Every structure is written in structure tokens, then in C-alpha cells.
Amino acid sequence: MTTPQTILKQYFGYESFRPQQEEIITTLLSGQDVMVLMPTGGGKSLCYQIPAMMKSGVTIVISPLIALMYDQVEALKANGIHAVCLNSSQNASEQNTVLRQVESGEVKMLYISPEKLFSDNILSWISTIDIAFFAVDEAHCISSWGHEFRSEYRKLGNLKSHFPNLPIIALTATADATTRRDILTQLSIPDAQVFLSSFDRPNLSLAVLPGRKRIEQIEEFLARHPRESWIIYCLSRKTCESVSEKLQEKGYKVAYYHAGMPSEERMVVQDAFLKDDVEIIVATVAFGMGIDKSNVRFVIHYNIPSNMEWYYQEIGRAGRDGEPSDTILFSSISDIISRREMIEQSEVVAPEQKILMQAKLDRMVTYAESNICRRRVLLSYFQETLKEDCGNCDVCRNPRKTFDATILVQKALSVIARTNQSVTMKTVMEILRWSQAHHILQAWYHDLPTFWLGREYSYDQWESYLSEMLNAGIMYIAYDQGHALKLNERSKTILSGKEHVLLSEYVSPEERRKQEDVIVSRTKKRDVIRDELFEELRKVRKSLAEEHEVPPFIIFSDATLSDMAQKKPIDERSMLQVSWVGQEKYRRFGEIFIDTIKTFARKEMKEGRRIVPGITHQETLELYNMGFSIDAIAANRELKPSTILSHLFKLKEEWHAIDFRKLVTDDVFDGISEGIRIKWFTQQSKLREIYEYFEEKYNYDEIRIVIAVVDISKN
I want to staple 94 with a disulfide (CB 3.0 to 4.6 A). Which of 90, 261, 314, 678 is the partner? Predict the structure, then answer.
């Protein structure tokens, strides 16, 4: 019987589902509409790909970028799944071929852009074929509250009217509460089952550094971590080209990418990066969605991003394979000013959108200037609370001094409560500071019991404390309700006196800049295996990728190669135990990598080097199956030959197939087996009895080996 679990293992090589994946799949298979918020690298695609494999008909996947479509289609094909894409880059003949393939019923997933979906009568054509369901990827693009709004996505709201009985699954990695509500509204799926996964990416290290001597700092990082994949985001096209040129002069494999380049040139650069021919991309935000390269180890923001959604999306391009990766944000006053000017001077942005963009930039600045755990700040933006500090950011590695701020926090929360959660942060500060501004007096806020209660702190201090409260998840901002501050369950707990709050001591900008002169660098030792075998496997992967004309990670990710380098599989059974190796991947590529591992192991053995650190019996088995003698294995592992034999006997008891016959000559085997048969020895017979019967002609090891081959219980 085909189940989600069997498809997961056979086609994708996973042993088990990640949190919520199975529930999402079950819900979609039941015919319900679904919205999924899952972090980058969290496994969103499987949530619709597995149901697509189980349901009859073709699944229509709406995707925003052509490059993203091709990568996903190639990845599915590599796993033995028939998927195609339809887009404007194809000529008429290629598009007709795709349409015929879909009509024939051999295709399980059709990737298409919203522009293509609503052109050339494609929607009418779709209504004539068997459709399983619709999947809307990067669903935040449909919302004007989102950071990547695309007007053409708005038309997707018509899908429900055209296909009322077909379920829709909307997927995004980046959407705050306002954007989430808007997605449901715009797609006409108000009753969709919503699945909110944690936004936390614990494998990502977070750091904010002063925006001075940036090139020198980057060069220092590059020198410490050679042969890795990097993305460096810049504010402007000019900066992209400048940074790229400076790094090229230092001998790095680097290229720049921005919207001012011809599309053909951008595709060449992107392709070179995906194929590991270029190690470093220096890019504007134009280098965004569709970059599904799993082995990016560093994401650097040369300039501060315009909002938290962009920042989260961009750092999410690091460590998609789950391996430890670093993110670094350079922050400076000049960058912040430049961002504000860009918003104000924009002639295509409506006034109300400018207000929203400025507010979101303010929140981004708050993150950069935060005195508390950065992961707490980041997650609080998405209304998620982290129970304890992450220990994997620059603030946690260099903690600030704190004080008991419970009463201070209660004063601020009381103001929010007494104003019916309808005022902005600025107004809260004005009330606490006894402002005589006209709008304060007009709203009778001066009659509130909380008026003037915060006069002992300056506006700068209150701004710092309120920002930290916001970052800590003590309250939140409703951007769609005039940027009003809102209370949550934690707010109420604090107001009731059931929770005490610690805040960081206020540090002036001048003092902060002095403290930031010390560059914070990551000291945690990387867990990713980068040994000689890993590099050999990378070379093989690169060759296969070039042969099949796909990016290397389509063959196997770095995480898979790391696991392979650690486990050193030498047969189908052990290769299928490597992470993310399914049946189809093994069929296409498994033996090639096994041969590489065996060749590497033999070379290392000849040089007298240890090969496999790990579980002792498994290590013995791997070497034995590679064809090494007992003496050679013993020498390599620094053990006695008798110990190696005991490992093999134990493995046989555990139902491993062990070829003992090759360990003794034909004469020895025939002599011992014949004697056992004549004397009628059984398994209950003591080894010493058998040894004495042969009058010491054969040693104990030889007798044990023959007994392991011959089932004497039946003699």
C-alpha cells in the first residue's frame, strides 16, 4: 500500500517526517484548503509534492520565478518523479510538448507562473484536464502587506471561483500576522487550515557588526572559511559591482548580480553560482526567490535590509541543508538614512505604503540595535516566543547587563491597555513623558492615571526599553491597524504581577559604537565534515552534475555528502541509510559513490591511515566487505586479529550476511567440515572438544570460521 511514509523514503530518502509535515499532507489529501508557514529549508515542498504523488491527476504549482521552477523540476526528476514547467522562456514547440505530456496523464506536477496561468487560454485548457489540487508557492507575493508583493499574484483569487471543489495549499516562509490574514482573504480560502511552524533556524548563527572597514572584515571571514558558498547582499547596484571587483582583485571566485544587468547575463551568473563555478555572489535584493542552493554557508548583509521579512528570507538562503551556517549584518547610520531617503523619494509607492515601509524599517533598525538575544527579536516579529536565549548570536556570546524592569514594563503596558490598544509607540512615550502635544490633550490622554508615570526616563531611554519589550514578545505592532501597540497573553501575565521582567541597561549610541569596535566572530567549531573523502565525493558530484547539466546539489546536497563521508557506505543497504538517499537516487548514482568510497578506503589503508571512526563492529564490517584481510583490518584499527573475528561472529548473530568462507583455504575448510560431520558435533559441543578431536591440526580461529559457515546443528 502506498502511504506518505513509503513515498517519503522511496523517492526522497527521508526516514521520517519533520514536525507538522504529515498532518499537513493528511489535511490536504482530505480535500481541505491549507496554508503553510514553514521556514526556509523546513520542507514546505514535500507538503504538496507527496500528496501530488498520491492523488490522481496533475497538481498545478504556481511559482514566481522561472529559475525556481527549473530547479524544482530537475530535483523531482532526479528523484524519479515526472514534473514539467510551463513558462515564457520556452518556445511554442517546447510549450506544446509540455501540454501534450500533461494531457497524456504521465505528469504529476506542472509548475507555472501566474502570468502564464492567466494568458494564452491556459486557464481554459486546465479546466479540461484532471487536476488534483493547486499549490501556491511564495504565497506572500499575493499580499500588499508582504515584502515581495506582485500584482499578478492577485489574479489567483479567481482560482476558487473557477475550481470551487479543488483544494488550494498556500505556502510561504515569510509572513507576519497581517500578511497571513491577507493571504487567506486574497486567495478566497478564509476557512483554510493554517499550520504555523516555528520560524526558528537554530543552525544559523546571527551577528550584527559595525559597518566600518567592511571589506577588511569580509576578507577575514573568507580567509577563515575557504571553498564555501557565500551571498553578500548590497543596497545598490554600484556597491555590488564595487564589492565584487575588490574581492576579485584578491583572487576570489566572485560575481555580481543586480536588476540592471541583461537577463541573459544574470542567468549566466546565477547558473555559475548554482554549479559551484562561482563561490561568492554579491547581489541586490534582485537575487532573491528561486535561489534554492542548499550549501550556502554564509549570508552577509553589506547594508541593512529594508524590513524583517526581507532579512529573514535572505538569511534563510544559508544552511538549507541543515548544516551550521553564518549570517552577518553590517549596520551603520548612513545606511539607515539611505534607506529612509529611498522610501521618501519613491514616486511609485503610495503614501500609505510609505508609512508602512518606514515602520518596518524602524523595526529592522530595532533588531540591529537590540541588546537582547537576536533570535528572540527575530522570532518575536513573527509573534513567536523563544523560551530561552539561543546561545548562537553575537549578543548571547557577549551578553549585556540587565536590571529588574518589571514596574517600568507594567507602566508601559498599562498605557497601552488604558488607551484601548489603539496608540503607537510614539504616543505611549508621550503619555509616559507628560507631553503637552495637541493630539495628546485632544484625546484626553492627560487624564489617564498613567500620565507622567515614566518621567524619570528620557525619550531615548523609553524608545530603547519599548523596542526591547517589542523584541522580547511582550507586545506586538498591528501594522494594519494604524501601527497600534497590542497586548498579548504575556502582557497580561506581567500586568497581573505573575512574571518579572529583566531588560538591558540603556547604552547611549556613543557608548554602543565604542563597544562595537571589537569584531564579534563565531568561535563555535563547525560540525560539518570537510575531510579528504568529502572533497573526493564533491568532485564526483561535480562531474555527474556537469554530465546531467544540473546544479551539483540536485545530485546530492552537502549534508548528504557529509553523512556519506561519515558512514562510508559500501553496499546498497548501507547507502540507503545515508540521509536523503532514496531508491531512485541510489539507482542513478549510488554505485558511483560507493566505488569512490571503496577506492578512497583502499588508498588510505595502503598508507596505514585509520578510515572509519565510529561504531566498532560496523567499522569492521565496512572494511571487511571492502575486501581487506583480517590482519589488515586489525592493523588499521590497532586491534588483535582475534578481536576483529569476534566482531564478525557477533555481526552474524545479528543477522548480517558475512562471507566467512574466504577466510580459510579449501583444504582447511574440507578437513574441518568433514571431521565435524563424522564426529557428529553440534552447537552444544564445546570448542575445546572439537579442537582436541583434530589433535591441534587446526587452530581455534579456523574452527570457529568453519562452524560459522557450516550449520552444525543439523549434522
Answer: 90
